[in-house]
Amino acid sequence: MLEFRRAGRTVCGLVLMLCAAGAQPLGSAPAQSTFERCYGGKADDCGYSVVPTSDRGCIVAGSTSSFGAGKSDIYLMKTDAAGDTLWTRTFGGADYDIGYWVQQTQDGGYIIAGTTRSFGSGGYDACLIKTDAQGRAVWIRSYGGSGDDGARSVEQTADGGYVFTGCTESRGSGQGDVYLVRTNARGDTTWTKTFGGAGRDEAFSVRQTADKGFIVVGLTQSFGVVGDDVYLIKTDAQGDTQWTRTFGGDDDEFGYSVLQTADGGYVVAGLTESFSPSEDVYLIRTNARGDTLWTGMYGGANADEAHSVIQTADGGFVVAGSTHSFGAGSFDAYLIRTNARGDTLWTRTFGGPGGDDAWSVAPAGDGGFFVAGCKTSAGGSRDVLIVKTDSAGNVVSGRSR
């Protein structure tokens, strides 16, 4: 089985950190609507990816054990600007199926990347689901072999096809390799690439770059200094390597999220254990060749990590993750705003006394931010957490600290 990890544990494509409980309305939305709400059922449910929609609402992909056909199903939720649920969809079979990434497609529908054990070639397989604008499946594809394989991130390419990345144990040269697959608009494979060595290597995020190539980030045990290092791979349009970079020290570093910046460089968000007394959010800013321009560490005395990063209009960044150093609980959802040099402008935490995480952040149409993750309920199960903040990261109605 493929497992996800909070720093230092095994990973390769499947997250079994789930959530639960019903939606809790927090009143009507002001002009710049803000809210902090939970969604789900009696079992574990969680949100791993959020994107804004044209109606000022959002779409969230994740997993549910409360609804659907199996032990865990891929969960797709659409909300309006006030956080009220417009519709939900589940996809899966009798076993474990989890959605990690969602993007709105050129035709107004959605593409979801995830992992399935209900369908495919054996063990866990990577899967893509294409839906229409109402979240109804148009096609579903699985990818992989006899080993465990998973997809963690997908992006629609300029020609209307797709590229996804994750981890494969069916192909490659090591315990697990970075998995990069290019498809056409119907989900049929155009090419498949693997990257790695004798150790475990895996990817969590892929973006198409301005030159029609791809930038991929994850972790490597095969290259770098020691343990796990951040693994950054730049390819051309055919998936052939142009350059690779590793970042890290004598302990573990992960890269969870990457994007190309407005100046053609890159920013990576993840965690570091080498360059802080405990475990800190790790932000790496590079030029177009992957050479480091600056690095930033953020956090406190306990474990803190980043899962998602976006660039803001002023050239700065917003990072979402989890913190054990600040907030109200064992872990809280963590939001950090920086300027273009990585200097902290503000931080926010969201959550309660249980363990809470933010897995994804996205810009909202009114200057605020959407955050998706998981929140532990009073009963100990997990709920989908969606937070909508204003431009300063505040929640006017609901709880924000």
Describe the structure.
This protein is mainly β. It has strands at residues 35-39, 45-52, 58-64, 73-79, 85-91, 97-104, 110-116, 125-131, 137-143, 149-156, 162-168, 177-183, 189-195, 201-208, 214-220, 229-235, 241-247, 253-260, 266-272, 280-286, 292-298, 304-311, 317-323, 332-338, 344-350, 356-363, 369-376, 382-389. The strands form 7 sheets. Strands 1-28-27-26 form a 4-stranded antiparallel beta sheet, with no helix packed on it. Strands 2-3-4-5 form a 4-stranded antiparallel beta sheet, with no helix packed on it. Strands 6-7-8-9 form a 4-stranded antiparallel beta sheet, with no helix packed on it.
Quick rundown:
The protein is mainly β. The chain is 0% helix and 51% strand.
Give the SSE layout:
Elements: E1 35-39, E2 45-52, E3 58-64, E4 73-79, E5 85-91, E6 97-104, E7 110-116, E8 125-131, E9 137-143, E10 149-156, E11 162-168, E12 177-183, E13 189-195, E14 201-208, E15 214-220, E16 229-235, E17 241-247, E18 253-260, E19 266-272, E20 280-286, E21 292-298, E22 304-311, E23 317-323, E24 332-338, E25 344-350, E26 356-363, E27 369-376, E28 382-389
Antiparallel strand pairs: 1-28, 2-3, 3-4, 4-5, 6-7, 7-8, 8-9, 10-11, 11-12, 12-13, 14-15, 15-16, 16-17, 18-19, 19-20, 20-21, 22-23, 23-24, 24-25, 26-27, 27-28
